[in-house]
Each structure stands twice: as structure tokens, then as C-alpha cells.
Amino acid sequence: MDPNYTPEAEAFRQKIQAFLAENLPSDWTGMGILAPEERQNFIADWRTKLAGAGLLAVAWPVEDGGAGLSLLERTVLTEELAKAGVPAGNDNDGFSISMLGHTLIEWGTEEQKKRFLPRILDGTDVWSQGYSEPNSGSDLASLATRAMLDGDEWIINGQKIWTSGGHRANWIFVLCRTDPTVRKQAGISFLLCPLDQPGVEVRPIVNAAGHHDFNEVFFTDARAAKDNVVGGINNGWAVANTLLAYERGDDATVTGIRHAEELDRLIAVARQKGRLDDPGIRQRLAWCHSKVQIMRYQGMRLVTNALNGYQQGPESSLNKLLWSEYHQKLTELALDIIGAEAMTPSGRDAASGAGLDDIGSPYSSAAWVTNFIGARPATIYSGSSEIQRNIIGERVLGMPREPRNDTGPWNETVRS
To answer: Which H helix or E strand runs over 188?
Structure first.
């Protein structure tokens, strides 16, 4: 379980470290040192610097405008960015570059790639993801948003929810039911739809911490060009699963790095509050340390497997289950250490609701309370813990599958 960083990879690490030293302030400790109104300007400028250094879209092939870096180089890059507490792009680049970009490279026509990939790189098109619906979350294939072909355009009607960054995007890749007469997975298409048009309404969802990360998106006779289907009509389920595989990105070892940094900051809080002599607190901190080390070794194993040609499959549910449930316990411990101050938090807020590298100071109770609130939905989004356990049981351990029923709002007569 050794990713075996080669001399070439370590030389690349030194190059990245030199780039960071040259382009970040000498007192830089993470995004949390910036006031909220400064963060978006910093991110926009930082994205420009990454692009200028060839460190944007690093996994795309060179012929598609990317850097064509190896897996090991991408791992080194994400590690160093995580250690420095800086993003790999803007807030929507995970959707634009990592998810849609790779999916277009694999499934898109030459015309689609020539049109959309350059606009992703230069930031003209900013993308969001239209998957989940109010009645179709974990059972995504039961989605009810419909698209009907009318001449040279698709007419889209329906609703998507939990659309991260939808308020910053001007495009959305959206799963639509294009054939309601067949089994649910078979009648879905993957459409590229502009958001800045009549018939599309983006409504904010503000969380308990007062942050606006998620949105609802309503489609009322919205339109998308006929040629904006990726992968072919009614083949969207295969395209959607390709995209979900890219959602994991090249950050296998980053989870352990970020959680280790956060734990170190919490230990500093406990020391500052005089709680390190409390045996109960020490035992809970030790438990957190053991889980972070498991994340570290899990990441190393994933990189090693990938270098040996094995692509991660359903066992990725183990990782999501581990970090999401861990982070809830870690943030509960943080509030227990902070004590009564958590009821009237003060100091600078965290840069995002669930940001691990956004806490500028370990002594900001507001940042820790925000982090606590942001950890609550982590066991629901991207597949609930119950769903993750089902996947592990059925697809990793080979246990009997739960009974399936293909009835749904798309067609009440279709049965499994």
C-alpha cells in the first residue's frame, strides 16, 4: 500500500511548491484568513494563475486543451493544493472541469467538444448539475423531469433540487426523461441546457448556517438545442454514471490531509481551552486520530490500485461512509470542547458550510459552529449512509439485493 512516488513525481512536487510560494502571500494559512467579501475575488484571480501555469484541467488530454498530467502528478498537485489551503479552481469547476469536461471528452461529439471545452476553460460557461429531484434522490432513476423534442429543440419541464452552485452557473447538465414508456433507466437522456433563459427559475436554499450553497431549479417549457444530447437519446443513464465516476476526482489522498489539518486545529483549541487533561476528551480525540489515519491509508491504497490499473468501483461507498460519519462526530466533539461559547459564537465564519480548510483560526467559535452545521447533511447528500450501506452489502459483500419496484411518476404502469 505504497503509491511509490517516483523521483519525477517528487520533482513535480517541488515545482508546485515553488509555484505556491511565488503566488501566495507569505502569511497565507488558508481561505479562512480572507473576509467573506474578498474570497470570490481571490478565487477568480487564483483560477487565472492556475490556468496560466497549466494547472487547470490537468487530467484532460493535451489535444482537448488540458495538461495531460499523469495520475501521480495529479495526486501530487491535489495534495499540495490541499496542504496550502487553496482551491483547484473556482467553486463550480468541480462540475465544469472534473465532471462535465471529462464526460464530454468520453461521450461528446467532436462538435460538442469543440464548442464547450474551450468555454469551460476560459470561464465563459459555468456549469451546475441537474440530477436530484424532490422525489428522486437516492433512487435517481425514478426522476420525473421530462424533455420532449419539438423540431430542433428540446422542451424541458420539471424540477431539480440541491443544485450546488446553481446561482453562479449559466449552464446546467440535466437528466431528463425522454421516453416514459420504458423501464426507468432506459428512458433517460443527458441534456446540456442554458440557465439564463425564460422558463428557468433558480431559487436559493439557505442552510441553517445562513449560507447559500444549494438551489432549486424549475423548468417551465425551457429549451435546449436538439444537438445538446450527450451520448445519444435515451442513453443518459450510462452517461450519468460515467460522470458520477469522475465526481470522485483525483483527490484520493486529500481527504486524509484535510481532516488531519482540521484535527490538528481542534487539538489546538482543546489545548487553549485546557481540555487536553480531560480523559473523555482525550479518548475522543484519539478515536478521531485513528479514523484520520484510516482515511490516509485508504487514500494510499486507492492511488496504488489506480497506478496498477484498477479503477475504483462500488467500494467508494466505504470512503464516503467513513468521512461523512467521522466528520459529524468530530464537529460534535469540537462543540463540546468549545462549550457554552458555541451558543453565542463569535469570530470569523468558515468560508463554506462544510469547508475543512476554511477555518482561518482554531479559536473562532463561529467557524467551528458553521462547520458543525455543515457536517449534518453529509450523511444524506451524495447518497445517504443507508444507501451507502446497501451498496456495500449488495455490490461489495455480495449480499442479497433488496426487492426493486420500477413504478414511478414517469409511468405508473411500468413494473419490474
So the answer is: strand 188-194
